[in-house]
Amino acid sequence: MANPFNKIKDLIHSLEDDFEKSYDKNNAAAGTRVRKGMQDLKNHAQAIRLEVQNMKNSSKDGAAAPAAKAAPAAKKAAPAAAKKAAPAAKKK
C-alpha cells in the first residue's frame, strides 16, 4: 500500500501551478481545478483519518473496527452545515 502522506504531498504539489494561475493571474479555469483538487485533498484526509481511527480502535479491541461504522458519522455532518445561522439583516 502506498504511503497516504505521500499521496497528499503529491496532490498538493500537483496543484501548485493552478494556485499560481488562480491567485496571481485570476485564471478562472485554474480556480476550478484548485477547488476540485482541494475537495480531493479533503476526501484523502478523511480517508486517512478514518484509517488511523480504525487502527486505534483495533489495537484497543484486538479486532478490526468495521468500516461501515465510520460512514454514518460523515452523514451527520451534513445536516449541521445546513443549520448555519442566517446572515444578519443590513442596518439602515
What does this structure look like?
The chain starts with a helix and ends in a 10-residue tail after the last helix. The protein is built from 4 helices and no strands. With 92 residues, it is mainly α. It is flat and about 55 Å long. The chain has one domain (4-79).
Report how far the terminal alpha carbons are from each other. 60 Å
Helical stretch count? 4
The helicity comes to over 70%
- Write the H/E string, N to C: HHHH
Extended strand count: 0
Mean pLDDT: 80
Q: What structural class results from the helix and strand content? A: mainly alpha
Number of domains: 1
Looking at the chains present, what oligomeric state does this protein adopt?
Answer: single chain
Strand content: under 5%
How do the strands and helices of this protein lay out in sequence?
Elements: H1 4-14, H2 16-25, H3 28-61, H4 71-82
Helix pairs in contact: 1-3, 2-3
Structure summary:
By secondary structure, the protein is mainly α.
Characteristic terms for this protein:
92 residues, mainly alpha
